Amino acid sequence: MAAAAPSSNLMGLSALSFPFLTSDQPLSKPSPKLHRPIRRPITITPKASIISDLVLGVGVGLPCTVMECGDIIYRSTLPRSDALTLTAPGAALALGAALPRSDALTLTAPGAALALGAASYLWATPGVAPGFFDMFVLAFIERLFRPTYRKDDIQIGKKLGEGAFGVVYKVSSAKNNPKQGDLILKKATEYGAVEIWMNERVRRACASSCADFVYGFLESSSKGKEAGEYWLIWRFEGEETLSDLMLSKEFPYNVETKILGEVQDLPKGLERENKIIQTIMRQLLFALDGLHSTGIVHRDIKPQNIIFSEGDRTFKIIDLGAAADLRVGINYVPKEFLLDPRYAAPEQYIMSTQTPSAPSAPVATALSPVLWQLNLPDRFDIYSIGLIFLQMAFPSLRTDSGLIQFNRQLKRCGYDMITWRKTVEPRATLDLRKGFELLDLDGGIGWELLISMVRYKARQRTSAKAALAHPYFNREGLLGLSVMQNLRLQLFRATQKDYSEAANWVIGLMARSGTKKEGGFTEAQLQELREIQPRKGNVKRNALASALRLQRKIIRTLNESMDELNRQRKSLWWSRWIPRQE
Ligand SMILES: Nc1ncnc2c1ncn2[C@@H]1O[C@H](COP(=O)(O)OP(=O)(O)OP(=O)(O)O)[C@@H](O)[C@H]1O
């Protein structure tokens, strides 16, 4: 009978099929005990386990040392806690090698919390996990299938603009592709590399946010030019930017049929204008949310950089030359700023100047969710969008001089829109009054959204996503809000409050209760917390302060040298990514 054992090769069957077989019986020769029914439970000794392994080794399945065949026999009598435990190798085995039921998975509460925490971190803005997928999978697949262009394929037409970083032309393709239509070509200087990178990222992550990017390459055949030019090609989206449309006396009616497809069934007036402006704002915030969700901050949002796409009937963002990709730290240099002062937020930097530039792409990627949350760089663009909203509401602020004057007034009011309103409203012109009336429609919900964007502190500004969920975009206005929408509005208002007063109150409270005995802060410690200048005359204290200053200086110098090194390393990295043509 024992000789038959090797023929039963399936996992654990040697023991299960022959319940009368004791574990210490030799398998090679027949045993006289075989015919005696055995009543006592079987225990598999190490020796038997080895034999069993040998037997099972020739068949399909795992040896008993892995399977714990004894456990299978006694499964029904095992205590629950022994039966179910999830270990990493166990999980891998379970998935890959079909473990027996006794090793089934159990998810413990700490395990689940850990897995959830890791997943949230990896998917939090700007998205470490999607970033890896994008860079190592999508980017390569895209390269295989996208259309490519050479210099000779392009017939240059009308010059459309010339900026500090390049010249833009309307062009057509010499390739016989009637569907392609007209194209836009930008011949750019060294910043073209960054712009190609950003446009490719956007095309994969949120194509509808920006003008349709076709191809970009380094053209290095032109004689006399050492570095060569970057050629960037887009689909021609349309003739007009938001700036062109806003400067027309007909605004916003000149946009109505473009975006809504028809003239609204309303008389000309505030309500109709409000509806058009709402639609434009929704499109702008949607485009911006796409960019921010993938970790890109534009840094140069202005009506001149928003094009109306005639094909898609929507506004799209253009000119990503000053953008920063905070997922991998490209074009992010904390102390460098390339901005249009008319639309720039007061902080001027998207990241704290204490944050050194990201060390290398993998490290920057790994740290990106933390840095994003610490700095909220997207709020820089939100300020600019807020100013565009303001210009749409107040016709007198649509000109450069009007906007510059407003910026001066707002600065004098400590960047507080409520103070600004109190200052200008009593002696407001007809134009200004019309703007306030428009924003005050529906219980002032437009004004509320506006001031949630135009704030001094970046942290107090709303995000593009939160702004899109604001009831300003609800068609029925405040009265039509559901219970959930009302709750969301209350939450939005709560997050918009200025908590600096609360912080002062907490510090005051800590001071009152602060005694050494109770373990709170003493007045002296709070003094340090508030960063009040140290008192003069204390030699020990002054020496300590000098040492701290020196330490800070050393760290700053180190950071700056790192920045410099990284900048050089990173520029090499971009260049390698971009196709070249001789
Ligand atoms: N995809 C597009 N479709 C249609 N027109 C476009 C497109 N891209 C750019 N343009 C036109 O070209 C002009 C210049 O583009 P862009 O702002 O990208 O160039 P730039 O060199 O950075 O200019 P500037 O420095 O003045 O901002 C735009 O104002 C717009 O009129």
TrEMBL record:
One of its GO terms (molecular function) is ATP binding. This is non-specific serine/threonine protein kinase. ATP binds at residue 186. It is found in: Plastid, Chloroplast thylakoid. The keyword Plastid applies. One of its GO terms (cellular component) is chloroplast thylakoid. It catalyses: L-seryl-[protein] + ATP = O-phospho-L-seryl-[protein] + ADP + H(+); L-threonyl-[protein] + ATP = O-phospho-L-threonyl-[protein] + ADP + H(+). Its EC number is 2.7.11.1. Gene3D superfamilies: Phosphorylase Kinase, domain 1, Transferase(Phosphotransferase) domain 1. Residues 154-473 form the Protein kinase domain. Keywords: ATP-binding, Chloroplast, Kinase, Nucleotide-binding, Plastid, Serine/threonine-protein kinase, Thylakoid, Transferase, Transit peptide. One of its GO terms (biological process) is regulation of photosynthesis, light reaction. Its main location: plastid. PROSITE patterns: PROTEIN_KINASE_ATP (PS00107), PROTEIN_KINASE_DOM (PS50011), PROTEIN_KINASE_ST (PS00108).
